[in-house]
Write a structure and sequence with these properties.
- The structure is a single chain.
- By secondary structure, the protein is mostly helical.
- Helices cover about 60% and strands about 5% of the residues.
- The chain contains 6 helices and 2 strands; from the N terminus they run αβαβαααα.
- A two-stranded parallel ribbon has the order 1-2.
- Strand 1, helix 2 and strand 2 form a beta-alpha-beta unit.
- The protein is flat, with a radius of gyration of 19 Å.
Length: about 170
């Protein structure tokens, strides 16, 4: 167990380190995901306490390019308060394949609301051109690409943000 009083100070230090190296980065701090109520790995109450401290810390940073993502809420079962069975990999702790699209769909609006990193417009232009070409081909085949295009924009944003940070961290 990590003492909750350390959550804030350590997260602030690490966030400031990243922003010092790469000030244009968007940082999304994700909360810990729930576990099945039957798991004895830890308790969902402990996870929720940790996540609350983490969310409060991120809010207190008051930076437009630093956000908290409540991953717990996305894949929890409202009835049990724990991990929804459909998102479990079967062991009660790890996430199954169905969890990742749900998390990505919930993450996209948060990414869209954050400042756009300097490298993003060029990539977005290339993606728009590619998506337009795919849309034309799909229209000929009577398919829809709206969801695909939205997913690609979200993923492209995440990729640019990752590589922007990576470029600043590597020698």
């Amino acid at each position: 167990e990590i003492p909750l009083r350390l959550v804030g100070s350590e997260m602030c230090k690490e966030t400031e380190k990243i922003l010092t190296i790469c000030p244009d980065s968007d940082i999304i701090v994700a909360g810990i995901t729930p576990i099945l109520p039957s798991s004895d790995f830890t308790s969902n109450a402990s996870i929720q306490q940790y996540n609350a401290a983490l969310a409060q810390t991120i809010q207190q940073l008051n930076r437009e390019n630093v956000a908290y993502f409540d991953a717990y809420a996305v894949i929890s079962d409202p009835a049990s308060g724990g991990l929804a069975e459909m998102y479990s990999a079967g062991d009660g702790v790890h996430l199954g394949n169905a969890a990742y699209p749900a998390l990505l769909n919930a993450l996209c609006p948060l990414l869209d609301a954050m400042p756009v990193p300097p490298a993003f417009p060029a990539l977005e232009q290339r993606l728009t051109e590619t998506t337009a070409a795919e849309t034309a081909i799909s229209a000929q085949n009577n398919n829809t690409t709206e969801d695909t295009a939205q997913g690609k924009r979200c993923i492209a944003g995440a990729v640019v943000r990752y590589f922007s940070l990576y470029e600043h961290l590597t020698p």
